[in-house]
Amino acid sequence: MNSSVFSLCSFLLLVPILSLILVPSHVNCFKTDVRLGSCQPFDCGKLKGISYPFRGNHQPDSCGHPEFVLDCQSDDAHLVFDGMSQRFRVLELDQTARTLNLAITDLSDSTCPDKFSNISLESTPFSFTAKDQMAALLYDCDQTKHPGQTRFSCDRSNFSRSGYFMMEADLGYEFPPRLSCGVTVLVPVMEKAVGKLMSKEVDVEEVLDEGFEVSWSSIEEEKCRDCIVSGGKCGRNTTVYEFSCFCPDYKAYAWSCSSSTTGTTQDMVPASDPVYPAPSDAAGDSSVIA
C-alpha cells in the first residue's frame, strides 16, 4: 500500500480518539437551533425590560423558569402558579431586589368573587415578605355577632352580598368565625394598607387592590450575568430542567459562552428542545446577536 495513503488512513482513524482526549469534558455543549433573539428581554403590560428567570407566554419554554411565566395578553401582566386556580396581577417587579407586588385578580374585579380560595405560596418558589400581613374575608355571616368589624358590600349583576374584613391574628380572639360565617378566606395584604384602612383613609377594596409583596431566592441569576457578559442569552434546558446559556455559535452551554473556563458541566440537550430554526446564513440575519 502506498505509504502516503496509509498515513492518511491512520490519521483519519485517530481523529475521533484525539477529539475525546483533547476536548475538555466541561466544554459540554450541543448544536442548537435556538435564535438568540427568541430569549430577548421583553415588555409585559406596563412592565418593561423583563428578563430571566421570567419569560413571557409568547416566548419559547426554554427562555425562562417554568414558575416565572408572565401572561402578557392584556394591559396588565399576570402570573399564574402551577396547581393554583388563582391569577395574580403584577403591580410591580424589581428584579434587582427580587420582589414582586401582586394583587389577586378575582378580588381586584370584585370583593365578592365567584370562587373562594385561600392564598398560599407553599408550592411556589416565592415567599411573603415582612411588609405583608394575613387578613380574613368573612362572608355569609350572622351580622348580630360581628359588632365593630370592618364591613364591606359588593353588588353583582344578580345579587348583593356583604362581608367583613379583619386580621387573621384576631380571628380566635374576637369570635369563632366558622360558627357565625359561612365562608372564611385568608388573603395576604400590605401592612401599610391595613393601617390606612384602620384610619379610614381607604376602603377594603383599595386594600386588596394594593396587593401584597413576595420575594424569591436566586434562580441562577449569577450564571445569567456571566452568560450575558459572554455574549449569550439566558434560558433553560427543558429536558433536564437546568440553566442554559444560548450563544452566538448556535450552541448552549451550562454557564456562559466561554464555559471552557468555568469548569461547569451540563448534559446535552436534544435538538428537539429548541423551537426556532437556525438561519441558513447567520452573518446576514439581523435577529442574531453576535
Automatic annotation (TrEMBL):
Signal peptide, first to last residue: 1-29
What positions does the domain Wall-associated receptor kinase C-terminal occupy?
A: 154-249
Transmembrane stretches in the record are none
What is this protein identified as? non-specific serine/threonine protein kinase
Instruction: Give the region (Disordered) as residue ranges.
Output: 262-290
Give the location in the cell: Membrane
Molecular function in Gene Ontology? polysaccharide binding; protein serine/threonine kinase activity
Gene Ontology terms: cellular component: membrane
Q: What is its EC number?
A: 2.7.11.1
